[in-house]
Write a structure and sequence with these properties.
alpha/beta; 6-stranded mixed sheet; single chain; two-stranded antiparallel ribbon
């Protein structure tokens, strides 16, 4: 299950320590502060799926992106060596709690080799801030999303890298850092925004389950 490569200091050959194993997914929420919803677990973990469908219970208050990133980074830093570490930050509005605290967190992610992808969700997100966050980390990407289909496609495409065989996939810990401020209770089509996110995460978990079954 594990494929390992090492750097040979004597010959100066640049081999990487790489782990091939099932991916792990965790969930962090943020409104006026960041908080853990689900610790990193393999996609088959039943409690991960259950908690992913209860995001709506946490929707309230304002938007503290900085603290959401803080909690997400702390989760990523516990990931063992050889496993990729990625944050998906989803926000539907502007940071109106401690906006200045975002950039020290982004710098911490960069120094810790944690990639941050950002999703601008809906029609009122702060595109310039989200673009700057993703551009400030290793290979970070910004993606605007306005529907369930677009969100599902974004999460599943970047998570699979076009590879449906988990045994040839470098293991990754993905931390979903989700905006759960009051505006996530607003409508998006015939659902609320947070319901769209819950359904997209369910599709992501099902895709990962197939990859590693």
């Amino acid at each position: 299950m594990f494929g390992l490569k090492f750097k040979n200091k004597k010959t100066n050959q640049h081999h990487r320590y790489v782990v091939h194993a099932p991916d792990r997914i965790s969930i962090v929420g943020f409104n006026e502060e960041g908080f853990q919803i689900a610790l990193p677990a393999e996609p088959h973990a039943h409690w991960l799926q259950e908690r992913s469908q209860r995001l709506h219970k946490h929707v309230k208050g304002r938007t503290n992106i900085a603290d959401g990133l803080r909690v997400g980074i702390e989760m990523c830093k516990k990931t063992p060596r050889g496993i990729l570490r990625r944050i998906w930050l989803l926000s539907d509005g502007e940071a109106n709690v401690n906006p200045g605290g975002i950039w020290p967190m982004v710098q911490r992610a960069y120094k810790s080799h944690i990639n941050i992808n950002t999703i601008g969700f809906g029609n009122s997100f702060d595109e310039s801030t989200l673009r700057k966050i993703s551009a400030s980390t290793h290979r970070g990407k910004f993606v605007p999303v306005k529907s369930l289909r677009e969100l599902t496609n974004t999460l599943t495409h970047f998570s699979s890298n076009g590879n449906s065989n988990g045994f040839h996939h470098r293991s990754e810990t993905t931390v979903l850092v989700i905006d759960l401020s009051a505006s996530m209770g607003w409508a998006m089509g015939n659902k609320t925004k947070v319901q769209v996110v819950e359904e997209a995460i369910l599709h992501l978990l099902l895709m990962k389950q197939k990859m590693f079954s």
